[in-house]
Amino acid sequence: MRKTAYILPVVAVLVAAALSAVFVVDEREKALVLQFGEVKAVKTEPGLAFKVPLIQEVVKYDDRILPLDTQALEVTPADDRRLVVDAFARWRITDPVQFRRAMGDGGIARARPRLERILNAEVREVLGGVDSGAILSADRVALMNRIRDQARAQAQALGVQIIDVRIKRADLPEQNLEATFARMRAEREREAADEIARGNEAAQRVRAQADRTVVETVSAAQKQADIIRGEADARRNAVFAEAYGKDQEFFAFYRSLSAYEKALKGGNSTLVISPDSEFFEYLKTANPDQ
């Protein structure tokens, strides 16, 4: 019983020591085995690994692509038009030994502000050498690639690789937005006024052309009507003349009947004519006794 009482603690200690000598490297991690702060081994393959208990320790780093969101900063391009630029990056630890030496015990938490300073410096340098139009146009892709390449060169000393850099937005500062919008509104209003003026000018030309066409059409129609009316009057007079030439007595009788019809219509008019007047010549009877 006494031996068992001594053996069990020893076994427990050995088991604990054996368990502390084993560690697992995840497929998403890289591990460093440290002994008194010095790197003794690098574990990059997933699976079980071993270390010396109590003497060595294990530090693990994320092997995945990590995000880096920076604070928005003001940039002054070559045309002195200030812009607020918000960028982000994707990075990865490629050399855990170099990363450990550069960051010490701080690890990823300490690396983020270092990388942010590098990224902001490159953003200012690259964007400060071009006009704001290039930043706001399709040329932005080439600028982002330049920022990435220059930041990547700076970050190699930290044992990391900058995978990509992207500009999320590039806007005017708040204090400049209202003035910019006012200039844009004024420009659009000027363009609208020019379009309205051109439209009114075109409308005036169309109306003038239409009025001219109306006058010409009415004049042509009036001319044609006068010609037709004149031809009709001439033909009527010719018919009357021909009729008068064939039977003058009958023509005089016909004209008198037309005069009677117009003069003897009912109404309030009073016509006083002597019965012996020539007007009633065709109303007289041929027999004076009747």
3D architecture notes:
With 290 residues, the protein is α+β, with helices and mostly antiparallel strands. The protein folds into 3 domains: 2-62, no CATH class; 66-178, Tetrahydropterin Synthase, Chain A (2-Layer Sandwich); 247-283, no CATH class. 54% of the residues lie in helices and 20% in strands. The protein has 7 helices and 9 strands, in the order H-E-E-E-E-E-E-E-E-H-H-H-H-E-H-H. The protein has helices at residues 2-20, 96-103, 107-127, 132-135, 140-155, 174-246, 248-263, and strands at residues 22-25, 29-35, 38-43, 47-50, 56-62, 66-69, 73-75, 83-93, 160-171. Strands 6, 7, 8 and 9 form a 4-stranded antiparallel sheet that branches. The chain has a 3-stranded antiparallel sheet with strand order 3-2-5, with no helix packed on it. It has a two-stranded antiparallel sheet with strand order 1-4. A hairpin with a 2-residue loop joins strand 2 and strand 3. The longest helix is centred in the last third of the chain and has 73 residues, at 174-246. It is rod-shaped and about 175 Å long.
Secondary structure tally, helices: 7
- Give Rg in angstroms: 57 Å
* CATH classification, class level of the largest domain: Alpha Beta
The CATH architecture classification of the largest domain is 2-Layer Sandwich
Helix/strand class: alpha+beta
User: Could you give the distance between the termini?
Assistant: 187 Å
The string of secondary-structure elements, in order, is: HEEEEEEEEHHHHEHH
The tally of structural domains comes to 3
The share of residues in extended strands comes to 15-25%
Overall shape: it is rod-shaped
What's the main sheet like?
4 strands, antiparallel
Quick one: how many beta strands? 9
Low-pLDDT parts are none
